[in-house]
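User: Teach me something about this protein's shape.
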Amino acid sequence: MEKETFLVIVGPTGVGKTRAALELAERSDAEILSADSRQIYRYMDIGTAKPSPEERKKVQHYFIDIVDPDQTYTAGDYGQQARQQLQDLFRRDKTAIVVGGSGLYIRALLDGLSPELPSDPEIKNQLVAEIKILGSTELHRRLREVDPQAAERIHPHDSQRILRALEVFQISGKKISELQKILPRDKLEFTPLVVGLNMERRKLYQRIEQRVEKMIEEGLVEEARKLLQMGYDKDLNSLKTVGYKEIFPLLDGKRTLKDTVAEINKNSRRYAKRQLTWFCNDPKVRWIEDFGGYSTALRKLFCDS
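Assistant: First, the predicted structure itself:
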């Protein structure tokens, strides 16, 4: 592989991205940049399916455990810092693999994000007050009316991004989805080889269910409880992550464990569909279907590029 070319592995949750990246990294002495918007948070290990401490000892990882759950970290932060990390790796003649399913993080890295319009405190405060009263779902419905494309990419519970999209619209009268296309972006100075991992839908859903069952066995409920005991509010954007938000009603005695697991599975399937929609719309992605494992195909692509 050329010095300034790097591999990017994307795909839906549960498809096996982490395992494929680890196997390839060990064989090629590569280092891994995580592109997961939830693995950045400390104390959220089981529910975000982070590589184990043993795996992270074998292969150097970046962008895991870099902020606390109540700290703000944006896709723009990631894009800038990941590019700097790539520069450092190439300077040291290291091979880099980026792996993750957070579409906006991948976009920030590869394409750059449009320069931000300045925030308007009055408009922002008004929207914050409205979302506290009406809830994020209602403001997401409002966003869908003015900017359907942005609403399609933003989860109804992602309050931070919903507020920003509505704020941009009220400030400029323009859709944030349109501004992101026309405003200038920083060009990436390296060459990415973007590979998407996919498998037959039924098999993917079975893997998701198996992973959720394993998370419960490994202590996901206790991990969620500990986060609350540490003083983190369940309404934090970080804790609205699939796998955590479904457990809080269980801890409040409002839901059984069986129903909790079913809800996590359902929301994980929905998340996987959204990820596939996002990446399938990206012409840069070269897809690999699972026919008994990705390793051989990935190694061939990796070495031939």
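Now, about its shape. The chain has two domains: 5-113+185-304, 121-182. The first helix runs from residue 17 to 28. If you'd like, I can walk through any region in more detail.
User: That's plenty for now, thanks!
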